[in-house]
Specification:
The complex is a heterodimer of chains A (150) and B (109). Chain A is mainly α. Chain A has 6 helices and no strands. Chain B has a domain of 76 residues. Helices cover 31% and strands 32% of the residues of chain B. Classes of the chains: A mainly alpha (150), B alpha+beta (109).
């Protein structure tokens, strides 16, 4: 029971961020995205598509940062929180090592898009959001009580 | 959790999240209304199409359609969208039962 509770506590927060980010993708973004194409071809695809006839109209009134940058930031914070929750009871250097990988991946991803190494559009607003999430991760690291290094 | 298990879980998570990042690709454009951009490729806004022997459908805008049936002289409006090759017609406000039942998934010939 204790292990189950610990597991739920580890995944609860990151899953919350992930669902929020995916929600923006599903309801407000193009059906030409790989993820949306796959999802809309599943059993619940018709109902989702029907809901999208309304949400896509609402999306016209939402700012670009909400539609395009916030999901990426939520993706990053979800991964960062997952890693933090897994390593928070370990010695400081372990937590620091694993936590720093998340911002490195996100920033490298964006830079690779800018250099056309991978598909996607480079956007300074994305970088700004990634830096904001990095600040949140650093704040979490600072407020974490670490295990003593043996 | 044992350290080894934590390491494996973390590596798996990075893999899953990178895969999710790749899956979020292939967007048409980063600006503008993505839905209407898709739609323009298949449907001419303003054009009228025959749905069956009785019903005519006109795509009034990137999200609104108007449907009309001649024998009973009734029509209605509703929302529509496109997913790949499929056209999804939402419910319409027609007074005729057969026209109301038109909502659903269609492909363009």
């Amino acid at each position: 029971m204790e292990k189950y509770k610990l597991f739920i506590l580890t995944i609860k927060e990151p899953i919350k961020y992930l669902i929020l980010g995916l929600g923006i993708y599903v309801f407000f973004r193009s059906s030409q995205l790989y993820f949306n194409k796959w999802l809309l071809n599943q059993k619940l695809g018709f109902d989702l598509q029907w809901m999208r006839t309304y949400t896509l109209q609402l999306g016209k009134f939402l700012p670009e940062w909400f539609l395009y940058s916030l999901p990426d930031a939520l993706w990053m914070i979800s991964l960062g929180t997952f890693i933090h929750n897994i390593w928070k009871n370990e010695p400081k250097q372990n937590l620091l090592f694993w936590s720093i990988i998340t911002p490195i991946i996100a920033l490298t991803w964006e830079i690779a898009q800018g250099m056309k190494f991978i598909n996607g559009t480079f956007d300074w607003v994305d970088i700004l959001f990634y830096l904001l999430v990095t600040a949140i991760i650093i704040h979490k690291l600072k407020t974490t009580k670490y295990e003593k290094t043996t | 959790m044992k350290k080894q298990l934590k390491t494996i879980t973390s590596i798996l998570l990075f893999g899953i999240f990178i895969f999710m990042g790749i899956s979020s690709g292939e967007d048409i454009k980063k600006s503008g209304d993505s839905q209407s951009e898709e739609v323009v490729q298949k449907i001419n806004i303003g054009s009228t199409y025959s749905l069956d022997a009785y019903h005519q459908i006109q795509f009034k805008s990137a999200n609104r359609y108007w449907i009309y049936q001649k024998p009973l002289n009734c029509g209605g409006e509703g929302n529509w969208s496109q997913s790949g090759d499929k056209i999804i017609l939402g419910p319409n406000d027609s007074a005729c039962e057969s026209t109301m039942k038109i909502k659903g998934e269609y492909t363009i010939d």
